[in-house]
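Saturday, quiet lab. Running sequence design on the structure tokens for the scaffold JK sent over.
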């Protein structure tokens, strides 16, 4: 008898992600995921408040306001509302502006900086519930984390900032979910946003401000692509595995491989949001383990006048970002550039005994002691690194009297197995919020976000969280 069975082709990655997004409901999120989501959003809000007093924030706001004028979407900090897409971009700039925001280690992305502004802005516009806002935020992170992990750290190798790339796809699906697109529309939104996703690492050359806008631009791209798809605009059906899809265009032409099996693995079973790491230092996450090692050696009694030389061991894959070129890293031209310099940051940690926003100032860039110690710091590859799962750091210090002191951190704090507590995150939020708000108001914002899943209307929640007004700062 003839065999009349047929083998159906496997669904595309876009189809699998669209099916998950279409079927997701708030009650499908485990309680632990909801609680962690609220803490991560709280962290993002605190950073945005701290960013709001900086020049880059005011420049960005003036530019966006000049282009689109006033709007009705809330902006974090003391800024007046903007049109939705401009508010998403502005809030993304604020969350990512100090490089103090969270990181998904496997994807090497800053997921909240795109997911939170998109979810907050769109949920408020549509008067969705707080629970629906949280679901939207979680969906954006789950998608972006998987797409970033599939690249296995290689986007950085070829000069692309993965936060801007994969964040756009996560935001497209999240926006589509909240806008009520059907599964076909969600697939098309991913295809459309393929032509919008971007993010260049060229900012490393001179400490330019462009990295700050990548997450917000991912949110804008996702929102725009979804609106087009919702109106019937068609996108490529294979935006990930296609001949000129995301991974072929960004990696394959350079001889680098991606593990596409990770793009949709474990959806709804394993929640990548639980692996998102909160930063305790306002610097590139690649530097945190080394900073911890430097602070541990200082706490153990090491004096900087004893140091003849320092060797810092880091994963080879992070060297182009925080170690090279050495001359520029030893003499960062501005504060933002210093946040990506292992030489400057380790020197600061050893000299000051702490590393927060107060230590990252222009005076320390030209401090002779900092520069002299940075000149004695070399970097090398960590042969035992488990990158990109963990961002390790080890210091080997040679003293003038011939001793060698070592301290190793195999994983950065916040990595799987090294959790940061809810109390740590709340304390960080308060520290950042108190830079711009009275304590009573900061506590009200904290309470509002930590009860966001019970909020009936995200528009009211957004106004509370942003303390928006109609005569805000330009």
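Result came back. Writing it out in full:
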């Amino acid at each position: 008898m003839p065999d009349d069975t047929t083998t159906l082709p496997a669904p595309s990655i876009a189809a699998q992600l669209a099916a998950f997004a279409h079927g997701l409901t708030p009650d499908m999120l485990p309680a632990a995921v909801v609680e962690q989501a609220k803490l991560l959003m709280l962290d993002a809000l605190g950073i945005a408040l701290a960013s709001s007093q900086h020049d880059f924030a005011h420049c960005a706001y003036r530019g966006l306001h000049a282009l689109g004028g006033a709007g009705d979407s809330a902006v974090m900090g003391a800024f007046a509302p903007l049109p939705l897409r401009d508010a998403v971009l502005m809030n993304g700039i604020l969350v990512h502006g100090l490089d103090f925001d969270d990181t998904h280690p496997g994807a090497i992305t800053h997921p909240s900086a795109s997911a939170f502004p998109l979810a907050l802005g769109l949920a408020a516009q549509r008067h969705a519930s707080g629970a629906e806002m949280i679901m939207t935020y979680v969906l954006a992170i789950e998608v972006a984390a998987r797409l970033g992990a599939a690249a296995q750290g290689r986007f950085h190798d070829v000069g692309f900032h993965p936060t801007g790339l994969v964040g756009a796809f996560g935001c497209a699906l999240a926006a589509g979910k909240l806008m009520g697109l059907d599964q076909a529309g969600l697939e098309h939104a991913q295809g459309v946003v393929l032509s919008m996703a971007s993010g260049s690492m060229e900012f490393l050359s001179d400490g330019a401000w462009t990295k700050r806008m990548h997450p917000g631009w991912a949110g804008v791209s996702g929102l725009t692509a979804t609106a087009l798809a919702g109106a019937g605009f068609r996108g490529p059906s294979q935006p990930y595995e296609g001949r000129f899809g995301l991974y072929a265009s960004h990696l394959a032409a350079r001889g680098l491989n991606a593990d596409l099996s990770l793009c949709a693995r474990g959806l709804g079973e394993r929640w990548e949001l639980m692996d998102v790491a909160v930063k305790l230092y306002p610097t590139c996450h690649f530097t945190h383990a080394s900073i911890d090692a430097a602070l541990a050696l200082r706490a153990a009694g090491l004096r900087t006048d004893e140091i003849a030389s320092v060797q810092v061991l880091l994963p080879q894959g992070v060297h182009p970002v925080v170690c090279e070129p050495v001359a520029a890293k030893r003499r960062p031209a501005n504060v933002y550039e210093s946040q990506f310099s292992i030489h400057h940051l380790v020197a600061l940690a050893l000299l000051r005994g702490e590393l927060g926003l107060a230590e990252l100032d222009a005076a320390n860039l030209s401090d002779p002691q900092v520069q002299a110690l940075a000149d004695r710091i070399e970097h090398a590859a960590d042969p035992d690194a488990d990158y990109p799962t963990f961002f390790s750091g080890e210091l080997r210090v040679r003293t003038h009297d011939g001793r060698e002191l070592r301290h190793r951190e195999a994983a950065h704090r916040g990595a799987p197995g090294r959790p940061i507590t809810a109390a740590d995150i709340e304390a960080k939020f308060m520290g950042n919020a108190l830079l711009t708000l009275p304590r009573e108001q900061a506590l009200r914002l904290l309470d509002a976000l930590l009860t966001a899943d019970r909020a009936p209307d995200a528009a009211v929640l957004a106004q509370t969280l942003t303390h928006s007004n109609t005569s805000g700062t330009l």
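Notes for JK: Residues 285-409 form a domain with the 60s Ribosomal Protein L30; Chain: A; fold (CATH 3.30.1330.120). The radius of gyration is 22 Å. Ask whether to fix the surface positions before the next round.
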